[in-house]
Design brief:
The chain is mostly beta strands. Helices cover 9% and strands 38% of the residues. The chain has 3 helices and 13 strands; from the N terminus they run βββββαββββααββββ. Strands 1, 2, 3, 4, 5, 6, 7, 10 and 11 form a 9-stranded mixed beta sheet that branches. A 4-stranded antiparallel beta sheet has the order 9-8-12-13. The radius of gyration is 15 Å and the shape is globular.
Length: 186
């Protein structure tokens, strides 16, 4: 399983070969476990972002068929140092640098549509859709160079809700009024 973050903001289109960060499995936290961030690079920030789960094997996926290749969405907290004390690609290898919430299945008829997801958190509110998140173009671009496999996780953009990650910070976030993410920093 791969966890891939595309480096861009949601207002810029995905280039044919986007900058990606491949997050190791040891850096991905699940099941609402507490996260212990390293002292290096502090203070840390987190961004609450949408994440998509790949549901079938694919290589060279045409963009018009990309909706067949993801089946669920959740929220992720991506932690990184607020100052450039550590390169981002190294910071995202820290244990718990990416925390995933509970997956919500997307009915096949709604995939890739402009169905708007509402994300609420005490620090802010964002809305995104599969189209605005760019998941279809992300799958197309990524599959040109690699085989996407069942269970791969794609985080297609990096400008969500920013949150300071201090010791004893607790983050809860909802996706369409369903609590999917709880994140605790120890």
């Amino acid at each position: 399983m791969k966890t891939i973050i595309l480096r861009r903001n949601s207002t810029s289109p995905i280039s044919p070969f986007p900058e990606i960060i491949n997050v190791p499995d040891s850096a991905v936290s699940r099941d609402w476990r507490p996260v212990f961030l390293p002292d290096d690079g502090s203070p840390w920030l987190g961004q609450i972002l949408p994440a998509y789960r790949v549901c079938r094997l694919g290589k060279n996926i045409p963009e018009r068929f990309a909706t067949r290749y993801f089946d669920a969405v959740t929220l992720a907290v991506v932690a990184f140092p607020s100052e450039n004390t550590i390169p981002l690609s190294l910071a995202l290898t820290a244990d718990g640098a990416v925390a995933l919430g509970r997956w919500i299945e997307i009915p096949e008829a709604e995939r890739g549509n402009d169905t708007v997801y509402n994300v609420s958190h005490s620090n802010g509110h964002i809305e995104f859709s599969d189209n605005s998140a760019g998941i279809c173009s992300a799958l197309h671009s990524l599959s040109r160079c690699m085989t996407l496999k069942m269970g791969d996780i794609i985080i297609p953009f990096d400008d969500g809700i920013s949150v300071a990650l201090d010791i004893d910070t607790e983050i809860s976030a909802t996706l369409d009024e369903v609590k999917v993410l709880e994140y605790r920093v120890k």
